[in-house]
Design a protein that fits this description.
Elements: E1 13-17, H1 22-38, E2 45-49, H2 55-69, H3 75-84, E3 85-89, H4 95-105, E4 111-115, H5 122-131, E5 139-143, H6 150-163, E6 169-172, H7 179-190, E7 203-211, H8 220-225, H9 227-245, H10 254-267, E8 276-281, E9 299-305, E10 315-321, E11 328-335, E12 359-365, E13 369-377, E14 385-394, H11 402-412, H12 421-431, E15 442-444, H13 453-458
Length: about 475
């Protein structure tokens, strides 16, 4: 295993493996342009990929990616970006490719290697970097998914740790770079009023929804290997759960932050088939490169429990899917009803507490906000009220994009928004029992909120809160 590096020393070059791919085209090029524009990137950028392109062709690809992203391009900034750009073509399995990379890096001795490549190639590239002597004092940034189950995650961790020290491995999840996700962490621990009620005594349930109103968009081949449980729930939604459920870190350093996140994953009860509803939108099997008898889920609803002192007995409901009515993401932390039902409008005719109890809502996308809901009396003699929301914060303009923030953090050695080895493996351990042993995917119509069985999953405690694309919910 490599020796621990000085994580405070910034990287002096950025290497992008897979620079000709879709991820680079859609996300990385706009992030690099923004970093150059802000003055946070002024080191060589070496792109590596298989096609035998010229540097001019790569520059045209960069320009096209910026135009398609809607970036307002300034010629002077683009020229600065191009002045930093290099290109190394070659096979990742060929030692000569890494020798050419070493020559392209020149005097750089602390590069950050970003693996924007298919997961099957992660180990090949990491081992190639180690064999070429390109790992010493370097960092590696690994795009998700980090493994596809517990066993493969352990194998990949072993490969990475044999070449790089843990504090030089940055497992990237762009979801953690979103301003709204970061605000969950800040809101929790920058305010004192939450702590007395942020536990099993006052929280009835927590639900998280990440909905998309579109299908797989030609990515059928990828989705056939992943599915919603692997692609969204195990990483994106679990990360949000960890931010909501973690204990306060004992010090400011990101090491303490990672310790508390890992404890949440370790306390999660492994899923069973009864905790899972899988769905597949009508027409998915007609998508290109999708099997005609595919059982891959495009919708997933999960009931989760965290067996900790704070959260014992509180159900967490996670839901994500494609071809749903909206593209939006929200968290709803529903509080328990008052112990004495003094007013008639707080109890349903059947005697069940009304759904409209107090809650805290984190709006993650398409716009970001935090809202607190409470009942307020209507004018008049009758004690009848309405549920109203108080908006606490809205998204600020000019925020860094997730990839800009995460690439900048990785190059500076700040690992706060990345995932550690033990957390990755603990999260996979939760879903591992149902990756193969699960109910069949249920068909649902496009434009609906998934199979009706998902409503039955949450029914004992609550009902799903369906986010809308608007600003508020009252």
């Amino acid at each position: 295993m490599a020796k621990t590096t000085n994580r405070l020393v910034p990287s002096d070059a950025l290497v992008v493996f897979g620079v000709t791919g879709d991820l680079a085209h859609k996300m990385i090029f706009p992030a690099l342009y923004a970093m150059v524009s802000r003055g946070s990137l002024d080191v060589p950028i070496v792109g590596v990929a298989a096609p035998p392109w010229s540097l001019e062709r790569l520059q045209k690809r960069v320009t096209d990616g910026l135009e398609r992203s809607g970036t307002a391009v300034k010629p002077s900034t683009l020229r600065r970006l191009f002045s930093l750009l290099r290109y190394v073509p070659g096979d990742y399995g060929n030692a000569e490719t890494f020798a050419a990379l070493k020559r392209a890096l020149g005097k750089a001795r602390r590069p950050a290697h970003y693996l924007a490549i298919p997961p099957a190639l992660f180990a090949t590239v990491i081992e190639g970097l180690g064999a070429a002597g390109l790992a010493e004092h370097a960092r590696v940034i690994v795009e998700k998914p980090f493994g596809r189950d517990l066993a493969s995650a352990r194998r990949l961790n072993a490969v990475a740790r044999a070449v790089f020290p843990e504090d030089s491995i940055f497992r990237i999840d762009h979801f953690l770079g979103k301003e709204a996700i970061m605000n969950i962490l800040y809101f929790r621990f920058a305010n004192s009023f939450l702590e007395p009620i942020w536990n099993r005594n006052y929280v009835s349930s927590v639900q998280i929804t990440l909905a998309e109103d579109f299908g797989v968009k030609g990515r059928g081949a990828f989705y056939e290997t992943a599915g919603c449980l692997r692609d969204v729930v195990q990483n994106h939604l679990f990360q949000v759960v960890a931010l909501l459920a973690m204990e306060p870190p004992v010090y400011r350093g990101y090491g303490s932050f990672h310790v508390e996140k890992a404890k949440v994953f370790e306390a999660m009860r492994p899923l069973t088939a009864q905790d899972l509803v899988r769905g597949q939108y009508a027409g998915y099997r007609n998508e290109p490169q999708v099997a005609r008898n595919s059982d891959v889920e495009t919708f997933c609803a999960v009931r989760l429990f965290i067996d900790s002192w704070r959260w014992d007995g509180v159900p967490w409901y996670l839901r994500s899917g494609k071809c749903l009515p909206e593209t939006a993401a929200e968290v709803l932390v529903e509080l328990k009803a008052p112990p004495a039902q003094l007013f008639a409008d707080s109890v349903s005719p059947a005697g069940r507490t009304n759904y409209a109890t107090n809650y805290l809502r984190f709006r993650l996308s398409p716009n970001a906000a935090v809202a607190l809901a409470a009942r307020v009396k209507r004018p008049g003699k009758e004690f009848v009220g309405d549920q109203r929301e108080l908006y606490l914060v809205e998204e600020l303009l000019g925020a860094e994009t997730p990839y800009e923030r995460l690439l900048s953090d990785a190059m500076s050695g700040d690992g706060a928004l990345f995932t550690r080895e033990d957390a990755v493996e603990a999260a996979w351990a939760v879903v591992d029992p149902v990756l193969e042993n699960h109910p069949r995917a249920l068909r649902y119509e496009r434009g609906t909120w998934g199979p009706k069985q998902a409503d039955a999953l949450i029914a004992p405690h609550s009902r799903w809160h369906n986010p809308t694309s608007g600003e508020t919910n009252t």
